[in-house]
Amino acid sequence: MTTPTPIADLEPVRRRAEQRAWYWYDWANSAFVTTTAAVLFAPYLTSVAEKAACGFVTDDDKGVKCTQDVHLLGLGISAGSLVFYIVTVATILSALVLPIVGAVADRSSDKPKLLGGFAWSGSVMAMLMFFVAGSDWQLGAVLLLLATLCLGASLVVYDSILVDIAEPDDRDRVSSRGWAFGYLGGGLLLAANFVLLSVLSDHTETAVRISLLSAGLWWAVFTIVPVRGVRARPPVNPVVERGGLLKASFGQLWATLKDLRRYPVTLTFLIAYLFYNDGIQTVIYAASVYGEKQLGFEKSTVLLAFLVVQFVGILGALGFARVAKRHGTYRVIMGGLLIWLLVVVAGWLTPADNVVLFLCLAVAIGIVLGGSQALSRSFYSQLIPRGREAEYFSLYQACERGTSWIGTLIFGLVHQWTDSYRPALLALMALFAIGLVFLSRVDPRRGIVEAGNVVPAVV
């Protein structure tokens, strides 16, 4: 009797294909995160607000400053602090909205489709930023708020898919490659916009608006790849709640929040991440405003610095993953935070108009940025119970890129009190220090076991 030939297990091949498709959402949304949120829109909206308040755009090199406020709901707001207050409000709203998004995602049988819905909604808001012109800062504020919320919602779903497509020992690699791919995509579009700004140097506002439109289009088009390339999966061990999807999701959310006390290590890491990632996000978000308004660089110089960050970030993300494979993710994250403290001090000491030091600072940020964020994502995925990934990642996303609120609030307030961005930047050291204190209290192996997950060979 002939023994039948066993059929090859094709699941690893399918997983690799899904991982490659999953990377494309980092590529897609990084265009908005880099070109719009990090580089162009903050200083552009600040200039629009200054024009509304004073009738002109400031020229710090010549000592001309706008000292008037824009007014919202009867409150006077410094034009230079406006963007940071908007991001603060967006994050407070995220804290209310994103956990519900996570609960819905965990009960959804088609996460890729849900990802696409949020991503395409955000990309529409991003494209509409093209119409922000003159002194119409109110339109810009609303679009930034909505785009930031949609980005956060899409990332809740996107990050939760990591658990479905990668085994525990493989998540550092997959997460880091996603970040690296995102840096490449965001960097390429930023390079194209750099050329555009250089060519249209006499029409800077038009070039900025076209760049904002391109970021929204990029986000929309490349989101098609993960939506089509990642398989829909049924929910895993959802909490049984009566009622429709939305009602059941509220019930699941409440159950998870009560259950969080069973995972003290997870909670401790989440608190640490809240603080240190707020510091990271605020440094990145404020860098363009700091470079233009405090150090006196042209938009093209600031954009060049971000290009350096993007392409060095590719090597940083992949390099940190290799080091983590040998020495453990937890230790590498701790080391990365110490480097961030040095980066903040270096930024505070950087003199105005010194392009070389500014670009060296960009290199340092690029090395540590991608690695610390990619490894934080994969490390957190080990600390959450199976079946509640999206819901737990919604809490994670409340303090993820572009949605930090403590740092932006501190930065905005210190600037308003001192009329200088230097002390505002230095104040961010407190966030990294507090994050390090909480992170030092995390026991990785205990946290992974408490969540019911398999402990990787090296943590």
UniProtKB/TrEMBL annotation:
Subcellular location: Endomembrane system
Topological type in the membrane: Multi-pass membrane protein
Listed GO CC annotations: endomembrane system
Membrane as UniProt keyword: yes
Transmembrane segments: 21-42, 82-102, 114-133, 139-158, 179-200, 206-225, 267-290, 302-320, 332-349, 355-375, 395-414, 420-439
Keyword annotations: Membrane, Transmembrane, Transmembrane helix, Transport
Pfam family, one: ATG22
InterPro entries in alphabetical order: Atg22-like, ATG22/LtaA_families, MFS_trans_sf
Name of this chain's protein: MFS transporter, UMF1 family
Native organism taxonomy: Bacteria, Bacillati, Actinomycetota, Actinomycetes, Propionibacteriales
